[in-house]
Amino acid sequence: MSSDVRRKSIRRVHAAVRQEPAAPAVPNELPTVSLSKLTKPDFRAEEYLKETLRVVQEKNIRQFRKALEDSRKGASKNLQKNVYRNYESFVFISKEISSMERDMQLLRELLHNISEVGDELMDEDELMDEPSRLARRRTQRMSMANQHD
Questions:
Q1: Contacts 24+ apart (CB under 8 A), 88-92
Q2: Are residues 56 and 64 in contact, defined by beta-carbon separation less than 8 angstroms?
Q3: Which string of b and e fits 31-69 if b means at least 16 CB within 10 Å?
Q4: How buried is 133 (Cβ within 10 angstroms: 0-12 exposed, 13-18 middle, 19+ buried)?
Q5: SS3 string of 96-128?
Q6: What whole-number distance in Å separates Cα of residue 63 and Cα of residue 56?
Q7: In the Cβ-directed half-sphere of 23, how many Cα atoms lie within 13 Å?
Q8: Cα separation of 38 and 50, whole Å?
Q9: For residues 55 and 44, what is the distance between their CA atoms, to the nearest angstrom?
Q10: On the CB side of 116, how many CA atoms lie within 13 Å of its CA?
């Protein structure tokens, strides 16, 4: 931003501030950046500037602007740190999800194979004639009884 544009914008802000009745303030008082006001969800920049810069001299407005810029830079650095920290978590969680998806696919395949084996056994059982089926069941019962003894 060129120095002429800055001067004009400072004059506009200063003129807008001067239009409202001045609140009692200490002359040459340096305005402070109120982070609590800046972070409110219903924050209105023009109202904040009018309230904060009501009877402030141009020299102090420049210092206030620098303090605002420093606050913005600090917030930007903090945001970058948070994004990086969250990105690491995101990558870790994504890898875990991918691993779980592979495990679930393997489990589906195993369950499908078990289902097919069960179906094949049922088909074989239906194909056997009645006497051989009864003999097979007796053998199974006998072997189960032997296991319990």
A1: none
A2: yes
A3: bebeeeeeeeeeeeeeeebbebbbbbeeeebeebbeeee
A4: middle
A5: HHHHHHHHHHHHHHHHHHHHHHHHHHHHHHHHC
A6: 11
A7: 9
A8: 14
A9: 19
A10: 6
| pLDDT given at position 110 | 94
CB 18 within 8 A of CB 53: no
28 DSSP assignment = T
Residues of the chain short of pLDDT 70, as ranges, are 1-29, 125-149
Termini Cα distance of the chain = 95
The Cα 79–Cα 81 span in angstroms is: 5
Report in angstroms the alpha-carbon separations of 147 from 140, 142, 143: 11, 9, 6
Q: Token digits for 113?
A: 């194979």
- pLDDT, position 25: 47
pTM of the model: 0.41
Please, are residues 22 and 58 in contact by the beta-carbon 8 Å criterion?
no
How far apart are the C-alpha atoms of 81 and 22, rounded to whole Å?
41
39 token code pair: 């972070």
Token reading at 35:
């982070």
